[in-house]
Design brief:
alpha/beta; Undecaprenyl pyrophosphate synthetase; six-stranded parallel β-sheet; binds 3-methylbut-3-enyl trihydrogen diphosphate; binds magnesium ion
Length: 233
């Protein structure tokens, strides 16, 4: 890890709804503001030297929200992937997704495919967007793929270990060094459970639409002071 900069940062982008409600706006306005924050923030994060950024955009459990809110978010994702996030392509950032396809709409899946395709040869960093994502679901889905490969003789049950397990997750990314959650909630909410085994945690009361570049820099300064021991003395 160069200059104590985390290799892989994960952000649970929480608090969009409260940001809007506090200003007397509809929750959807908070999601729109959050998407603008992400566009700027992602570019900044890679500028600091971070190589992998995972963001929690929509959990499998978020389908429990009203149809109006889910529809708004899905339409916002389409706009983001088709137009807004083009700036990431210019910055040589590759975009990948983690999560289940079902029950995402076809037009959402097509927009996801378009940004993946457009950025696939980019090399400066990877933005992993977790959409219709669940951490327990990811472990279950990985286990199913492993069973298939064991049954097909592609891997031997006794060769399976925690490093190989990573290769069966939605994306083969390094472990998360730094996990950030905005909006004053102190929980993981089924985010990247397997990858967080030795993550440093950072919680801030700032609501995601207000989590700007300087808020990230403040978090990064705190990360640099952490004493990571990985079980050693
Ligand atoms: C995070 O903000 C975005 C998504 C979950 C899609 P919320 O929508 O959870 O905002 P709060 O937590 O209700 O304020
Ligand atoms: C987690 O936030 C999911 C995303 C940020 C996309 P939630 O707002 O859904 O989590 P809970 O319900 O507060 O645990
Ligand atoms: Mg929330």
């Amino acid at each position: 890890m160069e200059n104590n900069i985390p290799v892989h940062v994960a952000i649970c982008m929480d608090g969009n709804g409260r940001w809007a409600t506090r200003q007397g706006l509809k929750r959807s306005e908070g999601h729109k503001a959050g998407s603008k924050t992400l566009e700027k923030l992602a570019i900044h994060v890679f500028k600091t030297g971070v190589k992998y950024l995972s963001v929690y955009a929509f959990s499998t459990d978020n389908f429990k929200r009203t149809k109006e809110e889910v529809d708004y978010l899905m339409n916002l994702f389409i706009i983001m992937f088709k137009t807004k996030l083009k700036s990431l392509d210019k910055e040589n950032i590759k975009v990948v997704f983690s999560g289940r396809k079902d029950p995402l709409r076809k037009d959402v899946l097509a927009a996801m495919d378009s940004i993946v395709e457009r950025t696939k040869n980019n090399t400066r960093g990877i933005l992993n967007i977790c959409l219709n994502y669940g951490g327990q679901e990811e472990i279950v889905d990985a286990s199913k793929k492993i069973i298939e490969d064991v049954n097909a003789g592609i891997i031997n049950k006794n060769d399976l270990n925690k490093e190989i397990f990573y290769k069966y997750l939605y994306q083969d990314l390094p472990p998360i060094d730094f996990f950030i959650r905005t909006s004053g909630e102190y929980r993981v909410s089924n985010f990247m459970l397997y990858q967080m085994s030795y993550s440093e945690f950072y919680f801030t009361d700032t609501l995601f639409p207000d989590f700007n570049e300087s808020e990230f820099d403040k978090a990064l300064e705190e990360f640099k002071l952490r004493d990571r021991r990985f079980g050693k003395n």
